[in-house]
Amino acid sequence: MTSQVSSPAEQADEASEALVGGQRASRSDRAGGGEKEIRRLDRVIIRFAGDSGDGMQLTGDRFTSETASFGNDLSTLPNFPAEIRAPAGTLPGVSSFQLHFADHDILTPGDAPNVLVAMNPAALKANIGDVPRGAEIIVNTDEFTKRPMAKVGYATSPLEDGSLEAYNVHPVPLTTLTIEALKEFGLSRKEAERSKNMFALGLLSWMYHRPTEGTEAFLRAKFAKKPQIAEANVAAFRAGWNFGETTEDFAVSYEVAPASQAFPAGTYRNISGNLALSYGLIAASRQADLPLYLGSYPITPASDILHELSRHKNFGVRTFQAEDEIAGIGAALGAAFGGSLAVTTTSGPGVALKSETIGLAVSLELPLVVIDIQRGGPSTGLPTKTEQADLLQAMYGRNGEAPVPIVAPRTPADCFDAALDAARIALTYRTPVFLLSDGYLANGSEPWKIPEIDELPDLRVRFATGPNHELADGTEVFWPYKRDPHTLARPWALPGTPGLEHRIGGIEKQDGSGNISYDPANHDLMVRTRQAKIDGIEVPDLQVDDPDRARTLVLGWGSTYGPITAAVRRLRTAGQPIAQAHLRNLNPFPQNLGEVLKRYDKVIVPEMNLGQLAALVRARYLVDAHSYNQVNGMPFKAEQLATALKEAIDA
User: pTM surpassing 0.85?
Assistant: First the structure.
C-alpha cells in the first residue's frame, strides 16, 4: 500500500483535517447516548496473539497496512511457531504479531505491548509476562473453558481468580459475537468461527481510528472466488467495529496522528525486509541491464524471496526451485557464468551446504549474490526465530583461503539498498558476495520511501568482446585472468563468444592465462591477489553519531540498529554522552574503522550471538571491545540495552 507524502507543513494540515473529519464521523455515527471519549496518544504498541490457526499474522498485517496508509511511522515483529500446525491451544502453538506505531520517528517494534489481544488461554499465558501493569487486555472469553485452560496449566480461570487485577481487562465473547453476526450467511459454526480474527481487527480498528476501506477491499480480493466467505469476513470486521462503537465496556477510543514530521516528502509504502530485498534485486538487474536469475531451495525464513521473485517474469526474472541447496547454488553459479545477475537465497543450514560452491565461485571469480536470512542455530535450531550467528561462517566457512565480501542491512527498508550494494560489489569485482539479513528484518516491516529511478546507481558492466593479451610472438589471445588494474577483477566472458574460450573449474588457475597450475609460487600469488581484490573493495567510511564527544562507543551491525539507536536516544535524554556507529560492510571493513575505534576509551558491541563481530574487531584492531550478547531468538529490547550500556559506561 502506497501513500503520497507532501511537505511536512502540508502534511500537518492534512493530518489535522483527516483527524477532525474522522472524529466527527465517529461521533455523528454514535447511536443514542452521549459521545465516547477520544484520547490522543503519541504512540501505541499492540500485540495480537492466538493459536497458529487463528490468523494472527493476517490480522496484524492488515492493521499494519491500514496504519501505514494513515501515515504513522511503524515497526512490526511477527512471531510464530516453527511447526506448520502445532497442537491447537498449546503454548508451542501460540502465534503473535506486535506492531508499534507513532506520530514520530520510531525504531523498534516496542519493548512491551500497551494492548494485548488474547484469543485463548495459551495466548494469554505465553504473553502476559511481557505486558506491563495498567495495560489493556482484550480476552476472548469463549475459549476460557476447562479443557483449553487445563492444556496450559490454568487450574482456575485467570479472568476470575484476581491474577489480572493489575491490568485493564476487557472480556469479549469474540467467537459467540462472530457467529451471531454471520447467521445470515448460512455458514457452519466452524466456518463462522474462522472470522473471529476479523471481528477482533474491526474492534481494534475502531479503538485506534484506523481506516477500513483497504481491509474490506483486501478481503473481497483475497476471497474473490468465494464471495460468500469474502462478505462474511467483511461482515465480521464491521461487526467488530460496531461492537466497539456501541458497547459500554469500551468507553474510550484513541487517536495517533500521522508522523507528519518524520518523513521527507515522497511516495511511501509499508515493506518487509524480504520484500525489500526482492525489489532491490530486481532494481539491480534493471540497472545492470542483466537478467536476474535465482537458484534456490525453500528454507525458513528466506523462502518469501523465492515466492516474490517468481511473480516478476515481466522484468526478466527467472527463478529455479532446486531439489536441494547444492543444486540451487550450482544453477545460480552456472547462470553467472552465462552472464546473468545470479542470486541464491538460504539460511544458516543452507549456507553450510553451499560452502563448496561458494569456494568454487571464489576460484572462478564470478559475480554471485548469496543471501543468508539468519535464524537461530545450530543445525535446524529455531527456524522461525532470529539470530546474528552466521557472521563467522560467512567470513571463514570455506576450505582454503576464500575471502568473500559481506554486506548487512540494518532495517527492513534498508534491505533494498543493501541488495543494490551487494550486486554492485559482485558485478564490479567479479566475486561472490554475502548479504546477511535475519528473521527479524525479513518478517518485520516499516515505511519505505520509494526511490526515483535516477537515484539508483548505474550497475552496467562490460563483457569481454575479444583478445586482451599479446604473446611474445605477437599473437593476440584472450587471457581470462588478466585483471583490471584498479579493481583486480578479471574479464567476464560470455560462453559462446568466438575467440574467448577458456578453462573453468575448481583447480588452481595460472595467473593471466587461466591454465591449470600446480606451481607453488603461482598459487601463493593467486591466493594473495584474491585477498587483495576483496581488501581493495571501495566501501564508504564509517559514520559516527557523537554529538557530545563521548568516551564510549556502541558499535553494531545488521538488525541491532533499531534497538541500539533507541537505547542511545534514551541515554542521551537522561544526560549520558554516548557515541554510536553501525557497520553495513563487514568485509572489508571501512578504512577508517581502526581510527574510529581508537578514539574511544570503551567500545561496546551488542550482538545476537556470543560475540562474533567483537572477536573480529579485537583480532583486527587490537581493541578491547566488550561484548553484550543475546541468543534467545528475539531482538534486543531498547530498555534492556539502555540499562546494559549505562552499566558499561559506569563500570
Answer: yes
